[in-house]
Amino acid sequence: MKTTVMILLVVLACFSFLSLPLSPRAEAATIAHLEPMVGPVGELVKFTGSVVCGGNFMIYWDSISEENLLVQGKATACAYAVTNFRVPETYKGRHRVILVDLEGGDEASHDFTVIPEIKASVSKGPVATVAIMNATGFAANEADIQVTYDGSVVTSGIASSIKGSWRTTITIPESPKGEHLIQASGALTNASEVGYISFEVVPKISLEPALGGIGATITVSGTGFASGEADIKITFNDLPAKAGITANSLGSFSTTFTVPNTNKKENAVDVFIRDAKVAEASNVIFTVGTAVTLEPAFGYVGHEVTVLGSGFAPGETSIKLIYDDTEIATSVTADTNGVWKTTFAVPDSTAGSHLVTAYGNTTLVKNVKSQYFIVLPRLSLSSTSREGGTTIIATGTGFGKSQPLTIMYDDIQLSLDINTDTKGSFTAEFKAPVSPGEEHQVNATDGAGNGAAANFFTETTPPSTPSPLSPAPKARVGFMGKQAVTFEWSEVSDPSGVSYTLEISQEADFQSPVLQGRDLIENHYTLAETEALEQGSYYWRVKAVDGAGNESNWTTAQPFTVSGLKLNILPIIVVLVILMLIVVLWVFTPVFRRKE
Questions:
Q1: Please, are residues 428 and 412 in contact by the beta-carbon 8 Å criterion?
Q2: Position 103 in a domain
Q3: Domain closes at, from 175, 201, 227
Q4: Which of 130, 381, 390, 436 is 20 to 30 A away from residue 506, measured at CA?
Q5: Is 454 helix (H, G, I), strand (E, B) or coil?
Q6: What is the DSSP letter of 281?
Q7: Count of domains in the chain?
Q8: What is the rounded average pLDDT for all residues in the chain?
Q9: In a domain, 589, yes or no
Q10: Which residues of 316-354 are buried (b: 16+ CB within 10 A; e: fewer)?
Q11: Are 208 and 196 contained in the same domain?
Q12: How many Cβ atoms sit within 10 Å of the Cβ of residue 62?
């Protein structure tokens, strides 16, 4: 009985001990899951890991440092750490997500792969929309990045940052209505890695001019219509203005109509396709008023410009055309609709904008919508095709007022001290430098940055190849010491003049010439004392160069030998001669005595 009681007590004690609560067990830090494990910069990633129960943790990107800290938190359930983070700006490829258990002191890591991505600031709009392109996840410092639109390059030469990001702008090119693909690639990133984004092109029309009078001719330009779209119609205040229009393969068209009678100042121009109104391209406003329009609106001094006036009084006379503050046309008369047309030649004037306006007996200048004409700099040459050395007179118009000028011939800056006059014009005279090649460019740039270029062509026919005369092949030259050899070849003629280049070498391939004589005028050359040749074997050749810098072929290499004795052996020769004389005298003197 006592034994049974003791056994029961021991069992009860063991049961009590086992039923005591266990202390929390420390778990090593682990990362159970990242969702997703692949994505672009900015992607939201769900993080699941484990740390010490209720412990604090931190998550880092690539390395443990303050700047790479993604998120910090506390495990909300025993051993579990769950949170979200966004992929930071970084280059493409594999990166480490690092979990640090602050209580347990453990670390764990998991891979995340960054992929490249492009985004556009707009995804829909008409042709000529400017879209800002932002890209991430390219290679660090990647070069030769380009953006394509439907496979055609629209911008290139982009480089990414050290974090693989870049930014640029593109202008949506002429293209028909609908979705179009934008892609990007670089030296280290294929377009297939990046994927694509789409841009939706919508129709649009524009008016030129958008202000004028009754009877004025208006140009309507349409873009973003369907490829080959037919039965397009233009209305003016709901009345037919032009019909039977067909877009080209890129969805664009251009047409004109005459402004009809209207008592409205603002008039709606709409577009229809088979009687269905194109909402995106309609309700473009044409304002009726007095105006002058120019065609073209930019150009060079001396060019002819057509001026159309509209909104003047019917039959108005003595209309004057003003360029800046100068009358350039008078006695212009409007028709019964108040419309008139004239032309003028752009007068001498500086680069930039110049106001063109008009007024008449009835119409005041302050009531006229004027237009600016933009003058462009221009350079012309008195001769555009001659040989080098030709005297050229360069004339410039449309440059800045009283500006210093720099004139370049290819990459040669000409030594000219010249300024433009008060109307931006100049005249300069110089000789065309002798330089190789057929086409050369003359550039003129003023101190304000206005510049223009003109081409100058030189003939490219080389002169004849001279014939070598002396020394003849395998000739031996000289007797004693260095030799100042004379070289001679046949004379060559050319209208632009001829000079010669002579080369002497000890190798037949002339890789290391011992002498080069350039710009030789005569068809012969005698070496100077400082150029005299030592004893040995040599080759010589010559070519002709004309005034345009064209070169003939080299003559065939001519071998010759300098055989002169070296001066340092002259004393030895003298001693030998004296010894020989002594021997002769010693041998023959007894003979002479015996004969006596």
A1: no
A2: yes
A3: 201
A4: 436
A5: strand
A6: G
A7: 6
A8: 89
A9: no
A10: beebbbbbeeeebeeebebeebbbbebebebeebbbbeb
A11: no
A12: 14
Domain that holds residue 351: 291-375
H/E segment holding residue 589: helix 570-595
Alpha helices in 80-170 (DSSP H): none
Higher pLDDT, 334 or 431: 334
pTM, entire model? 0.63
DSSP 403-444: -BEEEEETTEEP----B--TTS-EEEEEEPPP-SSSEEEEEE
Strand spans (E) along 191-249: 197-201, 204-208, 211-212, 217-223, 232-236, 239-245
Residues with Cβ < 8 Å from 501, sequence gap 6 or more?
A: 516, 517, 518, 519, 520, 542, 543, 545, 551
Closest CA to 496 of 518, 463, 454: 463
Higher-confidence residue: 62 or 10?
62
What CATH number should be reported for the domain holding residue 121? 2.60.40.10
Nearest to 290 by CA among 207, 235, 216, 236: 216
143 φ, ψ (degrees, to nearest 5): -110, 175
Residue 19 CB neighbour total at 10 angstroms: 7
Residue 579: per-residue pLDDT? 79
Count helices and strands (H / E) in the chain.
3, 48
**Does residue 402 form part of some domain?**
yes
CA distance 504 to 534: 12
Tokens of 348: 């001498």
Helix (H) or strand (E) holding 572: helix 570-595
Instruction: For residues 593 and 466, give the distance between their C-alpha atoms in angstroms, rounded to a whole number.
Output: 67
